[in-house]
């Protein structure tokens, strides 16, 4: 164990500091497609009974009108976070009629590109902005790719923890600077070790053959309707997923918050020739918000993001520049198609130990080639993670994946033990044991289980996914919410619809001016 990690663990293990670890916050966002009973994309509008996708803070849409997004509050106990996610699913199912929530990350058999509906948010300026942004995504990356779903895990350490560490380490600077630096250091370590999460939790080794729309690929045929790679863990996170030539040069290496926000600000303000050629309008209609590398900062696709809760009308970068990093958003998790809400408590417990390890372990600045190594390790694991004898690169040397994985888990063990000091049953250490078992035996990983289940039932990817979707639907529908919870969700949905109507009624001002001022808001902090 490194000296720094040991010192920090001892400090946090002191009686006065131990309760702080109970105040970590956990939030989950789960995306999922609405599908018909015959495993096709639902073409119906976002159900009004779920409220307004613009103003309901727990149920919205992501890219497509058919792509739901469920958002929990950030809570101290992940048990409560998962219970909240479960309730949102039960409420959704009470309003979905004969539609289903698609169980895995990779989409169902999709209609033609032009028939994938873009999410609509009404006639307000902010609603139109969200819609035009998605039109821009369709133009830049195609609609098919935007139908991939995932789980985002939001995690923060308590604000009171940082000053204690800062004081012990004699950091010169403000509490806010120390906190931001520490979160950026967490992100650097996350980049170094995130391949481990893909091995342990990747759950997309196969996809519907139609997804590739006839593009060339190196996948193998599982059956007439399914493509796969035999040792893949997460095709969702491979280069088959999100591809962008424009973003290729955009690789913030997280050496500090300033360099991260600067690289995104530049990208939002720098024209990209192919987008300039298209322009922002076609036949008098908006087709993209601007012709720059990114329309808005959230278009930058990364596995983890530093975040800060924004004020009304504030942009994510403005919040980070003004008030520093508040939490991280982990964005690489596949939906586990065997789990009703796509994630379970042991996975959340392990993620907490993993993220705390990344925060407390030494995190030197990236050397020139290290960023590239992180990326190539990650891509090797998503495509071939279960291949026996797979080698990764560590400090210029080849290392066996299983050997490195076991070493990392050993190093995370004291962090899990620290988290368990407040829990008699040792849930974090038990979750760690589950991961050791997967390292020893690759057949225990979700990606291996998906392929094993498809083989056993002689099913295509779509048939397997629909069977799981039906099993989960039954699980949620067989035990409806309490009357009290159902009423609370219905009230929230109604209230959100009223909020959207009010916004549309009172809003003044031209949309073109609204976009211009939105664009200017990023340029204002660029100078």
TrEMBL record:
Gene Ontology molecular function? ATP binding; glutamate-cysteine ligase activity; metal ion binding
Going by the record, the broad EC class of this enzyme is: ligase
Q: Which Gene3D superfamilies match?
A: 3.30.590.20
Which pathway?
Answer: Sulfur metabolism; glutathione biosynthesis; glutathione from L-cysteine and L-glutamate: step 1/2
Provide a GO biological process annotation: glutathione biosynthetic process
Q: What does the record give as the reaction this protein catalyses?
A: L-cysteine + L-glutamate + ATP = gamma-L-glutamyl-L-cysteine + ADP + phosphate + H(+)
Q: Recorded E.C. number(s)?
A: 6.3.2.2
Q: For the Glutamate--cysteine ligase domain, which residue ranges apply?
A: 10-380
**Pfam families from the UniProt entry:** Glu_cys_ligase
GO CC annotation, single? cytosol
Q: Which InterPro entries match?
A: Gln_synth/guanido_kin_cat_dom, Glu_cys_ligase, Glut_cys_ligase
> Which UniProt keywords are present, listed alphabetically?
ATP-binding, Glutathione biosynthesis, Ligase, Nucleotide-binding
UniProt record similarity statement? Belongs to the glutamate--cysteine ligase type 1 family. Type 1 subfamily.
According to UniProt, the name of this protein is Glutamate--cysteine ligase
């Amino acid at each position: 164990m490194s000296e720094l990690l040991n010192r920090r663990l001892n400090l946090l293990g002191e009686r006065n500091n131990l309760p702080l670890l109970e105040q970590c916050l956990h939030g989950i966002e789960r995306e999922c497609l609405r599908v018909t009973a015959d495993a096709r994309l639902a073409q119906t509008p976002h159900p009004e009974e779920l409220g307004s996708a613009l103003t309901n803070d727990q149920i919205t849409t992501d890219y497509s009108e058919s792509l739901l997004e469920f958002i929990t509050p950030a809570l101290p106990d992940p048990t409560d976070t998962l219970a909240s996610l479960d309730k949102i699913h039960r409420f959704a199912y009470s309003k979905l009629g004969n539609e289903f929530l698609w169980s895995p990350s990779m989409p169902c058999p999709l209609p033609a590109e032009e028939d994938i509906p873009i999410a609509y948010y009404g006639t307000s300026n902010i609603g139109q902005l969200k819609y035009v942004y998605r039109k821009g995504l369709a133009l830049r990356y195609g609609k098919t790719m935007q139908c991939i779903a995932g789980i985002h895990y939001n995690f923060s350490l308590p604000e009171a923890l940082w000053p204690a560490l800062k004081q012990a380490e004699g950091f010169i600077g403000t509490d806010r600077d120390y906190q931001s630096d520490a979160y950026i250091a967490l992100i650097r370590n996350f980049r170094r070790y995130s391949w481990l999460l893909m091995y342990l939790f990747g759950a997309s080794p196969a996809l519907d053959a139609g997804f590739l729309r006839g593009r060339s690929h190196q996948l193998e045929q599982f059956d007439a309707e399914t493509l796969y790679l035999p040792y893949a863990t997460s095709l969702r996170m491979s280069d088959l997923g999100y591809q962008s030539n424009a973003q290729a040069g955009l690789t913030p290496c997280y050496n500090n918050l300033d360099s991260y926000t600067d690289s995104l600000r530049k990208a939002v303000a720098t024209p990209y020739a192919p987008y300039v050629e298209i322009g922002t309008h076609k036949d008098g209609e908006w087709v993209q918000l601007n012709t720059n590398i990114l329309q808005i900062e959230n278009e930058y696709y990364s596995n983890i993001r530093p975040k800060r809760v924004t004020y009304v009308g504030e942009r994510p970068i403005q919040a980070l520049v003004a008030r520093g990093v508040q939490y991280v958003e982990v964005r690489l998790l596949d939906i586990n198609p065997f789990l009703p809400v796509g994630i379970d408590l042991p996975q959340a417990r392990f993620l907490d130990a993993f993220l705390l390890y990344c925060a407390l372990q030494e995190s030197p600045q990236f050397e020139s080639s290290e960023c590239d190594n992180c990326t190539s390790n990650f891509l090797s694991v998503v495509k071939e993670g279960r291949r026996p004898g797979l080698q990764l690169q560590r400090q210029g040397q080849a290392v066996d994946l299983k050997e490195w994985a076991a070493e990392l888990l050993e190093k995370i063990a004291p962090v899990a033990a620290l988290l368990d000091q407040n829990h008699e049953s040792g849930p974090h250490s038990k979750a760690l044991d589950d991961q050791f078992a997967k390292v020893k035996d690759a057949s225990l990983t979700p990606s291996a289980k998906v392929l094993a289940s498809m083989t056993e039932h002689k099913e295509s990817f779509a048939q397997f996914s629909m069977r799981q979707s039906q099993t989960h639907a039954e699980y949620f529908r067989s035990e409806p919410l309490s009357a009290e919870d159902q009423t609370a969700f219905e009230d929230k949905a109604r209230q959100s619809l009223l909020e959207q109507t009010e916004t549309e009624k009172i809003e003044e001002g031209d949309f073109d001016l609204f976009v211009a001022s939105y664009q200017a808001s990023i340029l204002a902090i660029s100078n």
